Amino acid sequence: MAVADRDVLPDSVKPINYNLSLYDLELGGAFTFQGIVKIKVNIKSPVKEILLNAHQLKVNRAEVTSNGNQSQKASEILYVEKSQRVSLGFAEEVAADEEATLELQYSGVMNNDMAGFYRSKYKPEVTPAASVPRIGDIHFMFSTQFESCDARRAFPCFDEPNLKATFDVSIEIPEDQVALSNMPESSVKPGKDGRKVVSFERTPVMSTYLLAWAFGDFEYVEDFTKRKYNGKQLPVRVYTTRGLKEQGRFALENAHQVVDYFSEIFHIDYPLPKADLLAVHEFSHGAMENWGLVTYRTTAVLFDEMHSDAKYKVRVAYVVAHELAHQWFGNLVTMDWWSELWLNEGFATWVGWLAVDHLYPGYMVWTQFVTEAVQTAQQLDSLRASHPIEVPVKDALEIDQIFDAISYLKGSSVIRMLSNHLSVETFLAGVADYLKAHAYGNATTNDLWAALSKTSGKDVNAFMDTWIRKIGFPVLTVAEEPGQIGVRQSRFLSTGDVKSEEDDTQWWIPLGLKTDPSDKGASPTALTQKEETLRDIDETFYKLNSDQNGFYRTNYPPARLAKLGESKEKLTNEDKIGLIADAAALAVSGDATTAGLLTLVEKFKDETNYAVWSQLIVSLTNIRSIFAENKVVSEGLKTFTLRLVQSATEKIGWEFKPNEDFLTGQLRALLIGTAGLAGHQQTITEAQHRFSTYFSTPSTPIHPSLRLPIFRIAITHGGPDAYTLLKTEYSHTTSIDGKEIILQSLGRVQSAVLARDFLDFQFGDQVAVQDAHTGSIALAANARTRDELWEYVKAHWATVEGKLAGNMVVLDRYVKTALSRFASREKEEDIRAFFEGKDTKGFDRGLVQVSDTVKGNAGYKERDEGLVEEWLKAHEYV
Question: What residues make up the catalytic site (predicted)?
Answer without folding.
Answer: 323
